Amino acid sequence: MSLIVFGSINIDLVAQTTRLPHTGETVLGTSFFTVSGGKGANQAVAAAKLGIPTYLIGRVGDDDFGQTLLNSLTEANVNIDFVTVTPNTGSGVAIIAVDENADNTIIVVSGANGCVDETDIDRLKSLLPKATALLLQLEMPIDVNIAAAKAAKEAGVRVILDPAPAPDSLPDELYHLVDFITPNETEASRLVGFPVNDQETCLKAAKILLDRGASTAVLKLGAKGVFCATRTEHFMVPAFKITPVDTVAAGDAFNGAMAAAFHEGLSLQESLIWGAAAGALAVSKQGAQPSLPSRATFEAFLQTNSAKIDLDTDAP
């Protein structure tokens, strides 16, 4: 059995600066580096580095970035048999600015990610009979995401959607195909139309997402923790205490680790703790995929810190 990630593959061009610029302003950076990223690739690497057999379905361009991205995935033990090199097309690129507080802004140019089509859905269908979950994001065309979710639903495979980057709205059809929807504060606020920043607004937002058709809403709140709501319960998972360095890929680390926990048969609450731990480790290092923890690092962190997590069940 394996996890399947159907998603984007990007090269990240990262500039570090003391603060993020205002509109029309130029600021001096302190450093620059390139690193493999993309929400789909990051989630696949997050799960694979935790020792879970993981397939990635997606596309890269026939440029130098594409080969770099494929090499990074292979080094992380992600199965890339279903990653297609698209001719005469550039790979996806993310232009990222990170300030000294670890906050970031990101501009994504889709490149080959925008070329995903029904042939990729056919590849997905061939893997679904032996899959425990399908992970989706929104850096690829929405109609293809819907087709992927439909295929998984028909195969009885759990669907986990990270609605990022968040649009003003999602098609009603997609909500009904999703078992877990996992927005962060900004994404949740955009989807429901009001600020989501505390337990009260989390509960209100989660109920809206559930009413739209999702089975479980998981709201990632950064240093505030994680709020989870199903149709029968809701609770908070506090964040692990850690000094942030770079928040890029924290949400991807969360989703990959949560899916890994489900793959290993852990409960919902245990799986969210796994996600929170992986997210905490990811923000403690620079870069997207380089920040994702190995299984040994992850287990050592959990052993040291999990006893400090006190679940607030049925939080108001």
Outline the secondary-structure elements:
Layout: E1 2-6, E2 10-17, E3 29-37, H1 39-49, E4 54-61, H2 64-75, E5 83-86, E6 92-98, E7 104-109, H3 118-127, E8 131-136, H4 142-154, E9 158-161, H5 172-177, E10 180-181, H6 185-192, H7 199-211, E11 216-220, E12 226-229, E13 234-237, H8 250-263, H9 268-283, H10 295-305, E14 312-313
Parallel strand pairs: 1-4, 1-8, 2-6, 4-5, 8-9, 9-10, 10-11
Antiparallel strand pairs: 2-3, 6-7, 11-12, 12-13, 13-14
Description:
Helix 1 (39-49) packs across helix 8 and helix 3 (118-127) runs parallel beside helix 4 (142-154). This protein has helices at residues 39-49, 64-75, 118-127, 142-154, 172-177, 185-192, 199-211, 250-263, 268-283, 295-305, and strands at residues 2-6, 10-17, 29-37, 54-61, 83-86, 92-98, 104-109, 131-136, 158-161, 180-181, 216-220, 226-229, 234-237, 312-313. With 316 residues, the protein is α/β, with parallel strands linked by helices. The strands form 2 sheets. It has a 10-stranded mixed beta sheet with strand order 5-4-1-8-9-10-11-12-13-14, with helices on both faces. It has a 4-stranded mixed beta sheet with strand order 3-2-6-7. It has one domain (2-9, 37-91, 111-313): Ribokinase (UDP-N-acetylmuramoyl-L-alanine:D-glutamate ligase).
